[in-house]
Write a structure and sequence with these properties.
Length: 288
């Protein structure tokens, strides 16, 4: 099979991008589809010191990734993320920090018919601004369970009206607008990032820090509890294990009346108390 002709200008462009890939440890793919020019310029200015962005045609990008994968193994897997209007991102910034900065600078936007849902779109239960009327049947057609309360239409329970990756219909877009729900986001959309042979997609990069720290704290607590229960000594739990061993050894000496060092007073006190108890039980009066 003969290879398609590649112009000299494209060959030079490929060489330039390959050089960037060689000298940059982290490469990302962004989707600029639907991103207004003003918003793009804003993001360029915000990330100027951290990121270099390059917009290429998909076929050129695929050629670049295939060639660069000889040195950066697995880079060609980014080809599967080249949807919409792709752009390459070159950076030395930590991928998670970079994603956080970009996400923070996104703004909500209403949905339009034909757009792809970036995540599950949910209409929450609660009151609506609608008076009783045909809207009830419109809501029902969208899978939303509604009723009437206090002269207004209410939504009885949360409803997923469009799954992630689904196409937003004209009827749904109109209803979301009337409900003041803005499920879309305007901003740079990072789809995936490559670093040292690993590809992080947006689901991995999009970390809820509060949930992450809560889970991390729980994991540390569970690990420490397990190590203590298994009597597995570590730098972090050694003091706890020694204290636990001391308590348990004292409890054993006390229960078995062992006259160990440091326990003589307690054991004799316990024996004396038992003696007095026995005396009272048998009414011992000292020989009378």
């Amino acid at each position: 099979m003969s290879k398609a002709h590649v112009s000299e200008s494209k060959k030079e462009l490929v060489k330039t991008v390959l050089a960037k890939l060689k000298n940059t440890p982290i490469v990302g793919v962004a989707n600029l589809h639907g991103l207004p020019a003003a918003q793009l310029q804003k993001m360029r200015g915000l990330l100027r010191e951290k990121v270099e962005m390059l917009m290429l045609k998909r076929n050129i990008t695929e050629i670049v990734f295939e060639n660069a994968s000889k040195e950066k193994q697995g880079l060609e897997k980014l080809n599967s993320y080249l949807g919409g209007n792709p752009a390459l991102i070159f950076t030395r910034e930590n991928p998670f920090s970079l994603y956080k900065i970009i996400k923070k600078n996104k703004s909500p936007a209403p949905a339009k018919a034909g757009q792809i849902a970036p995540k599950d779109i949910i209409v929450n239960a609660g009151p609506t601004p609608f008076a009783p009327g045909p809207v009830i049947s419109e809501l029902k057609q969208l899978g939303i369970n509604s009723g009437i309360e206090g002269g207004k239409i209410i939504i009885k329970q949360d409803a997923v009206v469009c799954k992630e990756g689904g196409v937003i219909s004209e009827a749904l877009a109109s209803m979301l607008l009337r409900l003041s729900i803005q499920p879309m986001e305007i901003g740079l959309d990072i789809v995936a990032v490559y670093e040292k042979g690993i590809i992080y997609d947006k689901k991995v990069l999009d970390i809820d820090e509060t949930v992450f720290m809560s889970n991390l704290t729980k994991a540390i607590a569970y690990a420490q509890n397990l190590s203590v229960e298994a009597a597995y000594p570590t730098k972090q739990n050694i003091n706890i294990l020694i204290s636990k061993a001391a308590r348990e050894s004292k409890a054993l000496a006390r229960s078995q009346n062992i006259l160990a060092k440091g326990m003589v007073g307690e054991v004799l006190g316990k024996v004396h108390a038992q003696m007095l108890s026995l005396k009272n039980q048998i009414n011992f009066n000292g020989g009378e």
